[in-house]
Write a structure and sequence with these properties.
heterodimer, A: 263 residues, mainly alpha, 3-stranded antiparallel beta sheet, 9 helices, 3 strands, flat, B: 273 residues, alpha/beta, Rossmann fold, 2 domains, 6-stranded mixed beta sheet, 4-stranded antiparallel beta sheet, Cobalt/nickel transport system permease protein (chain A), transmembrane helix (chain A), transmembrane (chain A), Cobalt_transport_CbiQ (chain A), ECF_CbiQ (chain A)
Chain lengths: 263, 273
């Protein structure tokens, strides 16, 4: 039985995913292609097919536990559902509605058109996120940055992305330790104390981050850093097996397109 | 006779004008030596190491590597031969995977891709990190991160390896692993300098001890002579190693044979019992 990873951050999946060996540029093109198709097609069926196909890629091929995948989708899903509800519900007389209820001096109602629009928008957003997750859940940050380098993003920005990525985890570890130390001394016992403790933590974190940045720079210089960060980039071959999934997805979309046109 | 690798003469360094972090340091380091650098916190050990690697520049005095004076333009060259493993691996590890991290030094040396990969994988293998190659560093334990930080410098194939408090925050198993690595490096002919507060480890491991106090080098001798100098130990805030105390006690009670070179390992003591 596969284990779920409720305690890990999103980038952990890039490390364990079966799609990790796929060619990075291909994954980005595949993902962006799916994203653009979903937006341009404006079709419930194409959105639904994309959601299912990306779920298949991440869970079956990528071997990410299904519950983990759903948990990761849940946060954006909550926003999408709330947005969908806002689109679906109308205020007014409720004429021609599928469903309506009295709400103070007016009525809340749902029409077929609004229901369709809401469903389409929610599925489209979901599909776009699923397509995006295909890359983020299978590609380490360093490889995503290497794609940016290929599209000529300035080196300074890429170096900053590398360092910030690493730094986020160092600072969050430091902050976790600070928080535990503060909790052990009742630093979060009530609201007022919590605010005071939190502000102290942030101030301390700022000072520590400055100190750590100095140490970081020394450590980089000690290994020959001269102003240009050259990071190792894995070369991952594009195989026929990877292309098959692209063709399958394309064929699925074409099939849906023709079925929709005939009906 | 051993070859001179690093010659430090009249080295003075200050972070600010209020006081010198290092003052008139004179020391010669020979090939394949195992040197422990001791001293209280703030004594100048880490600053000394940063000067040896060229991260900090001497304000006065000079450092020679194999007879050549290290000037501003030679610092990068110096770093190819003198590597530092920092005390806190999180201050050293910068890349998003173990492999990219270990490859950072060789990449900066502008080696070709095949050579970078060869060195990186060899260092990863030596540190027994093969199963972590593509793992992000923040998913490693403290001991594993330490091994990555050592692999970083191994991949640069440095002749002189400097370890800033290598055993700090390591559990006994990882500390022993580190000691094995250090011994292996010595067998490979590398020169090892390490700072530590663990006098037992320093006594057992080093063949030479440097003692710093308030930015000055106040002791440079064999571990036996350094740890027998009570005055020096008191001044530098150091303790006598338990192993040495035990040997002296056994000797006082006539339980062991007298010897001019004191034992530093259990096996050596066993021979004298």
């Amino acid at each position: 039985m596969k284990k779920t990873h409720s305690h890990v951050s999103i980038d952990y999946y890039a490390y364990i995913s079966g799609l990790g060996n796929w060619n990075t540029v291909y994954k980005v093109i595949f993902s962006l292609g799916a994203l653009i198709t979903v937006i341009a097609a404006n079709s419930v069926f194409i959105s639904a097919a994309t959601i299912i196909f990306m779920l298949y890629l991440n869970v079956v091929i990528g071997k990410i536990h299904g519950m983990d995948y759903l948990r990761l989708l849940w946060v954006p899903a909550a926003f999408i559902l709330l947005g969908g509800i806002a689109i679906m519900i109308q205020f007014g007389s409720g004429a021609g509605s599928l469903f309506s209820i009295r709400f103070f001096w007016t009525r809340l109602y749902i029409t077929t058109d609004n229901l369709r629009l809401s469903l389409n928008t929610a599925l489209k957003a979901f599909a776009a996120i699923s397509a995006f997750y295909m890359v983020t859940l299978s590609t380490p940050m360093g490889e995503i940055i290497s794609v940016f380098r290929k599209v000529r993003v300035p080196g300074l920005i890429l170096e900053l992305m590398h360092l910030i990525y690493r730094y986020i985890f160092i600072l969050s570890d430091t902050n976790r330790a600070q928080k535990e130390a503060a909790k052990s001394r009742n630093g979060y016992c009530d609201l007022k104390t919590s605010f005071r403790t939190f502000s102290g933590e942030i101030a301390n974190l700022f000072v520590m981050s400055m100190k750590k940045a100095d140490m970081y720079y020394d450590a980089m210089e000690a290994r020959g850093y001269e102003g240009d960060c050259d990071f190792w980039e894995e070369k991952k071959a594009l195989t026929g097996g990877q292309l098959v999934y692209g063709f399958l997805y394309g064929a699925l979309l074409i099939l849906i397109f023709f079925i929709e046109r005939r009906s | 006779m051993k070859e001179k690798i690093l010659e430090v003469s009249g080295l003075t360094f200050a972070y600010d004008k209020s006081r010198n972090a290092l003052e008139d340091i004179n020391v010669t380091i020979y090939q394949n030596e195992k040197i422990a650098v001791l001293g209280a916190n703030g004594a100048g050990k880490s600053t000394f190491f940063l000067n040896l690697n060229g991260v900090r520049e001497p304000m006065q005095g000079e450092i020679r590597y194999r007879g050549e004076v290290i000037g501003k333009k030679d610092k990068v060259k110096l770093r190819r031969h003198v590597g530092i493993i920092f005390q806190d691996p999180d201050s050293q590890i910068i890349a998003s995977t173990v492999k990219a991290e270990v490859a950072f030094g060789p990449m900066n040396m502008k080696l070709d891709r095949d050579e970078v990969e060869k060195r990186t994988m060899a260092a990863i293998k030596e540190m027994n990190l093969e199963s972590y190659t593509m793992r992000p560093p923040h998913y490693l334990s403290g001991g594993e991160k330490k091994r990555v930080s050592i692999a970083d410098i191994l991949a640069m194939d440095c002749e002189v390896m400097i370890f800033d408090e290598p055993t700090a925050s390591l559990d006994p198993v990882n500390a022993q692993m580190l000691e094995d690595v250090l011994n292996r490096m010595e067998e490979e002919g590398r020169t090892i300098l390490l700072s530590t507060h663990d006098v037992d480890f320093a006594y057992r491991f080093a063949e030479r001890v440097l003692v710093f106090f308030d930015g000055k080098l106040i002791g440079d001798d064999t571990p036996q002579k350094i740890f027998q100098n009570e005055e020096l130990l008191k001044l530098a805030n150091l303790k006598k190693p338990v192993f040495l105390e035990l040997y002296e006690l056994l000797r006082e009670k006539g339980k062991v044979k007298e010897t001019s070179a004191y034992p530093r390992q259990l096996a050596e003591l066993d021979l004298l019992l």
